[in-house]
Specification:
Its cofactor is pyridoxal 5'-phosphate. By secondary structure, this protein is of the alpha/beta class. Helices cover 36% and strands 15% of the residues. It folds into 2 domains: 147 residues, Rossmann fold (3-Layer(aba) Sandwich), CATH 3.40.50; 92 residues, Rossmann fold.
Length: 268
């Protein structure tokens, strides 16, 4: 039955799954999309953001009124901003200065302070600045989404379980992109444990093929490929690395909107 929730964080998860019927014709593979945009701030990162904060609270690391500092280039920042606002924490987000004005405006709307670093330094530059800010603010907390096991853990107990239940355990392939690696690691490991024959593929931008052993570079797939292999990413969980060009990704987003009615990502 419908219920009244205590705060917005209780609405995270239990996102729907929809089958694509127009991009893939009858007789081809059935492709299912889990609509993580149905999370309150609009992405899968709401899950990790909630877990990063809740786990720190449980361990006594994060106390009422504390300041959270996090380097981010993707939706984790938005998820943290929403969760921090709901729980009463001050939030400082550090990100490369090539982020869109719209994204920065959204973060500020949630009450977050935004500190920009040179885009050429990519995420390592943002991480360095975040550590400097933490040193200036005793008692502040950096969740460190790239190394914190609370990130993949939430996908083990929520995302993966939802997928197994929603598909009835009938799944041949699981595909996800990798930013921090939390989603592909936590979800992939749990799905593989339940479905040993499952094939897992991870997607990375063609312009920054770090997982494939290439050099980091500029790309338009915001939130993916931070320029290094994150510590929490289990590189043995996937069977294949799929490189996707900016143009291909953007065209597919447009087709999903126009042919399936699914407005996903940044469809400009």
């Amino acid at each position: 039955m419908p219920r009244i929730v205590n705060d917005v964080t209780e609405l995270i998860g239990e996102t729907p799954v929809v089958a694509l019927r127009r991009l893939w014709q009858p007789g081809m593979a059935e492709v299912l999309v889990k609509l993580e945009r149905f999370n309150p701030s609009g992405s899968v990162k709401d899950r990790a953001a909630y877990s990063l904060i809740a786990t720190a609270e449980e361990k006594g690391i994060l106390t009422p009124g504390a300041t959270i500092i996090e380097p981010t280039s993707g939706n984790t920042g938005i998820g943290l901003a929403m969760n921090a606002a709901a729980k009463g924490y001050k939030l400082i987000l550090v990100m490369p200065d090539n982020m869109s004005k719209e994204r920065i405006g959204l973060l500020k709307a949630y009450g977050a302070d935004v500190v920009l670093t040179p885009a050429a330094e990519r995420m390592p530059g943002a991480i360095k600045r975040a550590l400097e800010l933490q040193a200036e603010r005793p008692g502040s907390y950096i969740p460190n989404q790239f190394e914190n096991q609370a990130n993949p853990d939430i996908h083990r107990v929520t995302t993966a379980q939802e997928i197994l239940r929603q598909t009835g355990g009938k799944l041949d392939v699981f595909v996800a992109s990798a930013g921090t690696g939390g989603t592909i690691t936590g979800t992939g490991e749990t799905l593989r444990a339940a479905l040993p024959q499952l094939y897992v593929a991870v997607v990375e931008p063609l312009g920054s093929p770090v997982l494939s052993g290439g050099k980091p570079g500029p790309h338009k797939l915001v939130g993916t490929s931070p320029g290094f292999v994150p510590a929490i990413l289990n590189t043995s969980v996937y069977d294949e690395i799929v490189q996707v060009s900016d143009d291909n990704a953007i065209e597919t987003m447009r087709r999903l909107a126009r042919e399936e009615g699914l407005l996903l990502g940044q469809c400009h």
